[in-house]
Amino acid sequence: MRSLLRLSWVEIKLFVRDPMTALFSLALPVIILLVLGGVFGNEPSSAEDGMLVYAGVGPMTYYVPAYVALVVLSVSLISIPVHIAGNRERGVLKRYHASGVSVWTVAGAQVVVSFVLSTISSVLLLVAAELVYDFSWPDSVPGALGAFVVIALGFAAFGIFLGSVSPTARSAQAVGLLAWFIMMMLGGAGPPREVLTSEMQAMSDFTPLWHAVRIMHQPWLGLDPGNAWWIFGGIALVSVVLAWRFFRWE
Amino acid sequence: MPHVLEVEHLAKRYRNFTAVEDVSFSVEEGEIFGILGPNGAGKTTTVECLQGLRQADGGQARVLGLDPWREQDKLRRQIGSQLQESALPDRLKVWEALSFFASVRAEGVDWHTVMEDWGLTEKRNASFGSLSGGQQQRLFIALAVLNAPRLVFLDEMTTGLDPMARRVVWDLVRKLRDGGTTVVLVTHFMDEAETLCDRLAVIADKRVVDIGTPSELIDRYSDGVEVTFTLAEETAPDLAFLDSVPGTAQATRTGPRITVTGEGPLLAHVGAALVAHGHAPTDLQVRRASLEDVFLQITGGRA
Q: Considering only alpha carbons, which residue of chain A is nearest residue B75?
């Protein structure tokens, strides 16, 4: 436990010392919010406009909870896998292993770090949304916090799985970025799901982000999450099992 | 006293590649034991098996009385380790590395003392990436001894270091031994093995080919000694007297250069004979075989 806290603190400091990555992870969601918010505004659509999108609420009210899920995803999918694979590539993990650092300490520190970063990034996002747009805060704040914790843990497991199977930092980065963009476009944080073709909607059902977005929308907007909790929980569980199975020290 | 480390017929095979075929040796308490061999001979695989980082497929090993694979967690708490080709994050500071690795070890490890002992205090706020190769090795040794281990494995510590830094690292290794720690040192440098090791195993082609102290190995494999000097032919036309010098096997002349090969205290005898015949060459010298000659002979062709 002592070494987990120590390593988590060290990892947070290392993250801050790499300003480009820090800036990218923390600023990107805010930039997306400001640009898309500028384009779409926050006027709810209505059936008279031709098509009912965003489940009938204003675009920013719809997007902010989805962006919270996207923020968590970007930390988990872009920074965790690169970090784990890079440490393996450079022999850092091997050194940890030889010194008796457990796999739980290594993985646990990544969970702690991604949780802290996701929280900071989400707070920045909400501050920007509050300052610029008249968006709605969650119907149920405890529910939204609970959903955030579940999403953060689930995506961290997914990121650790990707880091476990990626042979190099470069491949981890390529796979992570690609997956991130696909999920952003199809998973409910890009174009409204209602405008996707039926094929795209079918693909969207396979993206973990879409289920995370539905989990966030439930306490925030009172929307029906359907089976999202089950599917997301399943993805998280499978990630943990696969990460455990495929994790390599070198 | 039982051996600190004992290994018999260790073997490690991968799917279509044998990394270690047959390695046996034992290490005594308090010595620097060298594992010397050319690149790819199986040295690193051997010590990684002995640290429980890989599972051997054949043979037996006991390290500090433990089975290195099945009791690897217990073993790792008791040994120190410097691995080949491993690093730390570039932006990690020296004190942070010490503090973190100390937290992994048992309670109550005082990393401040270790930092002081190994001369890292003035570099405590330097990042790993900014350290020189020698300083990085100094940090690695400090990290390896945080838990005051009885046994430390050092794998290729001086590869890539300049001659000055190598000397410094050698002093660190001696300091470690003088503090009572047993050291297993993997190297492919002959001079390093000859200078540092109390005993060593020569590994070639995935097996141990011989074990002994550096001078035992030299005696065992060297073809005796060679005495050379310069004497112009007109000053000493007849050198037949050299053949009767005790220990001489052969004396040959190439121009003004004379080479006497043989064994025993050849230099003294040749010197005495020369002086008795009125010659006193200024460049009289002896050349004993070095570990390098021995090594080339032992591993010759197979390396």
A: A100
DSSP code of residue A65:
H
pLDDT tens-digit profile of B22-36?
999 999 999 999 999
Q: Which pLDDT belongs to residue B249?
A: 87
Q: Is residue A17 part of a domain?
A: no
Predicted local distance difference test score (pLDDT) of residue B303:
41
Domains held by chain A: number: 1
Residue matched to tokens 């492919």:
B188
Q: Are strands B199-204 and B5-14 parallel, antiparallel or unpaired?
A: unpaired
What is the per-residue pLDDT across B186-226, written as a single tens digit (0 to 9) for each?
A: 998 888 998 999 999 999 889 999 999 998 888 887 777 88
CB atoms within 10 A of CB A226: 11
Pick left, alpha or beta for residue B287 (phi over 0 → left; psi -120 to 50 → alpha; otherwise beta): beta
CB A201 within 8 A of CB A193: yes
Query: B22 CB contacts (<8 Å, ≥6 apart)?
Result: B9, B10, B11, B59, B206, B207, B208
End-to-end CA distance of chain B: 35
Residue A39 lies in a domain: no
- Residue A47, domain member (yes or no): no
Which site among B45, B78, B100, B159 would you substitute to test the A interface, given the most A Cβ atoms closer than 10 Å to its Cβ?
Answer: B100
Give the residues of chain B that fall short of pLDDT 50: 302-303
Reference A219, options A151, A137, A152; nearest CA is A137
Q: ipTM score of the complex?
A: 0.84
- Which of A89, A93, A121, A90 lies closest to A107, judged by CA? A93
Q: Structurally, what CATH architecture does the domain formed by B5-220 represent?
A: 3-Layer(aba) Sandwich (3.40)
| Structural domain that includes position A165 | 2-11+22-31+59-246
Among B83, B130, B137, the strongest candidate for a mutation testing the A interface, having the largest count of A CBs within 10 A, is B83
Looking at chain B, which residues constitute the CATH 3.40.50.300 domain(s)?
5-220
Is there a domain that residue A216 lies in?
Answer: yes
**Three-class SS of residue B256?**
coil
Sequence-ordered list of residues with C-beta below 8 angstroms from that of A137, at least 6 positions apart, any chain = none
Q: Which residues of B touch A101 (CB under 8 A)?
A: 104
Q: Which CATH superfamily is domain B223-287 in?
A: YebC, transcriptional regulation domain (3.30.70.980)
